[in-house]
Amino acid sequence: MAIERVLILALVASCLISMSTAIPGQATFYTTYVPSSCYGFQDQGTMIAAASPAIFNNRAACGRRYRIRCTGRTNLGVLQPCRNGEITVRVVDLCPGCQANQFDLSQEAFSMIADPNAGRILIEYNE
After folding, report:
1. Is the pTM value of this prediction over 0.85?
2. Across the chain, what does the average pLDDT equal?
3. What is the DSSP string of the chain?
4. Under a CB-based contact definition with an 8 Å cutoff, are residues 28 and 104 in contact?
5. Which one of 18, 44, 45, 72 is most buried, by most CB atoms within 10 A?
6. 10 Å Cβ neighbour count for 62?
Protein backbone atom coordinates (compact mmCIF):
# COMPACT_ATOMS: atom_id res chain seq x y z
CA MET A 1 0.00 0.00 0.00
CA ALA A 2 2.79 2.45 0.89
CA ILE A 3 4.71 1.59 -2.27
CA GLU A 4 1.62 2.28 -4.38
CA ARG A 5 1.22 5.71 -2.75
CA VAL A 6 4.86 6.57 -3.41
CA LEU A 7 4.53 5.51 -7.05
CA ILE A 8 1.35 7.55 -7.49
CA LEU A 9 2.97 10.63 -5.90
CA ALA A 10 6.02 10.22 -8.14
CA LEU A 11 3.81 10.00 -11.21
CA VAL A 12 1.83 13.09 -10.22
CA ALA A 13 5.02 15.02 -9.51
CA SER A 14 6.54 14.08 -12.88
CA CYS A 15 3.38 15.25 -14.66
CA LEU A 16 3.45 18.55 -12.80
CA ILE A 17 7.12 19.08 -13.60
CA SER A 18 6.66 18.40 -17.32
CA MET A 19 3.67 20.74 -17.51
CA SER A 20 5.42 23.47 -15.57
CA THR A 21 8.28 23.49 -18.07
CA ALA A 22 5.95 23.64 -21.08
CA ILE A 23 6.29 26.77 -23.20
CA PRO A 24 3.16 28.50 -24.52
CA GLY A 25 2.96 29.14 -28.24
CA GLN A 26 0.87 28.73 -31.36
CA ALA A 27 0.64 26.21 -34.18
CA THR A 28 -0.56 26.25 -37.77
CA PHE A 29 -0.16 23.58 -40.45
CA TYR A 30 1.29 23.11 -43.92
CA THR A 31 0.99 20.46 -46.62
CA THR A 32 4.17 20.48 -48.78
CA TYR A 33 6.89 18.62 -46.90
CA VAL A 34 9.77 18.38 -49.38
CA PRO A 35 12.12 19.93 -49.98
CA SER A 36 12.93 20.95 -46.42
CA SER A 37 15.68 23.18 -45.08
CA CYS A 38 17.15 20.40 -42.95
CA TYR A 39 16.86 17.35 -45.19
CA GLY A 40 16.44 18.58 -48.76
CA PHE A 41 14.40 16.06 -50.77
CA GLN A 42 14.64 13.23 -48.20
CA ASP A 43 11.18 12.23 -47.00
CA GLN A 44 10.98 12.51 -43.21
CA GLY A 45 7.44 11.18 -42.80
CA THR A 46 4.46 13.16 -41.58
CA MET A 47 5.08 13.73 -37.87
CA ILE A 48 7.15 16.79 -38.70
CA ALA A 49 7.20 20.54 -38.19
CA ALA A 50 8.70 23.75 -39.44
CA ALA A 51 9.91 25.96 -36.60
CA SER A 52 9.96 29.72 -36.13
CA PRO A 53 13.32 31.43 -36.70
CA ALA A 54 13.77 31.73 -32.91
CA ILE A 55 13.29 27.98 -32.38
CA PHE A 56 15.03 26.96 -35.61
CA ASN A 57 18.13 28.90 -34.53
CA ASN A 58 20.10 28.74 -37.79
CA ARG A 59 19.38 25.01 -38.24
CA ALA A 60 20.37 24.07 -34.67
CA ALA A 61 16.85 22.62 -34.22
CA CYS A 62 17.10 20.30 -37.23
CA GLY A 63 16.11 16.82 -36.07
CA ARG A 64 15.02 17.90 -32.59
CA ARG A 65 11.81 16.42 -31.32
CA TYR A 66 9.16 18.48 -29.55
CA ARG A 67 6.09 17.36 -27.63
CA ILE A 68 3.12 19.57 -28.48
CA ARG A 69 -0.33 19.78 -26.92
CA CYS A 70 -3.27 21.94 -28.02
CA THR A 71 -4.48 24.26 -25.24
CA GLY A 72 -7.11 26.41 -26.96
CA ARG A 73 -8.37 28.50 -29.83
CA THR A 74 -6.98 31.67 -31.36
CA ASN A 75 -10.11 32.73 -33.25
CA LEU A 76 -13.88 32.37 -33.26
CA GLY A 77 -13.99 29.97 -36.21
CA VAL A 78 -13.85 26.74 -34.21
CA LEU A 79 -14.85 27.22 -30.58
CA GLN A 80 -13.30 23.99 -29.24
CA PRO A 81 -10.53 22.98 -31.66
CA CYS A 82 -8.47 20.78 -29.33
CA ARG A 83 -8.48 17.02 -29.40
CA ASN A 84 -7.15 15.03 -26.48
CA GLY A 85 -3.56 14.06 -26.39
CA GLU A 86 -0.08 15.15 -27.23
CA ILE A 87 2.06 14.58 -30.31
CA THR A 88 5.79 14.41 -30.86
CA VAL A 89 7.11 16.03 -34.02
CA ARG A 90 10.57 16.37 -35.50
CA VAL A 91 11.80 19.72 -36.81
CA VAL A 92 12.65 19.45 -40.50
CA ASP A 93 12.21 22.99 -41.77
CA LEU A 94 12.17 26.72 -41.10
CA CYS A 95 8.91 28.66 -40.94
CA PRO A 96 10.16 32.17 -41.80
CA GLY A 97 6.77 33.81 -41.21
CA CYS A 98 6.14 32.19 -37.84
CA GLN A 99 6.10 34.09 -34.55
CA ALA A 100 8.75 33.39 -31.90
CA ASN A 101 7.06 30.39 -30.21
CA GLN A 102 5.24 28.99 -33.22
CA PHE A 103 5.38 25.70 -35.08
CA ASP A 104 3.97 25.03 -38.52
CA LEU A 105 2.97 21.38 -38.17
CA SER A 106 2.34 18.89 -40.93
CA GLN A 107 -1.38 18.66 -41.58
CA GLU A 108 -1.35 15.08 -40.27
CA ALA A 109 0.29 16.11 -36.98
CA PHE A 110 -2.00 19.13 -36.54
CA SER A 111 -5.06 16.94 -37.16
CA MET A 112 -4.08 14.62 -34.32
CA ILE A 113 -4.33 17.40 -31.71
CA ALA A 114 -6.82 19.83 -33.26
CA ASP A 115 -9.52 20.38 -35.82
CA PRO A 116 -7.78 21.59 -39.01
CA ASN A 117 -10.70 23.96 -39.65
CA ALA A 118 -9.31 26.08 -36.79
CA GLY A 119 -6.20 26.88 -38.86
CA ARG A 120 -4.29 28.24 -35.86
CA ILE A 121 -4.32 27.03 -32.25
CA LEU A 122 -2.74 27.79 -28.90
CA ILE A 123 -0.26 25.15 -27.76
CA GLU A 124 2.19 24.19 -25.06
CA TYR A 125 5.41 22.53 -26.11
CA ASN A 126 8.63 21.19 -24.70
CA GLU A 127 11.61 19.25 -25.95
Report:
1. no
2. 90
3. -HHHHHHHHHHHHHHHHHHHT-EEEEEEEES---SBTTTBT----SSEEEE-HHHHTTTTTTT-EEEEEEEEESSSSSSS-B-SS-EEEEEEEE-TT--TTEEEEEHHHHHHHB-GGG-SEEEEEE-
4. yes
5. 44
6. 18
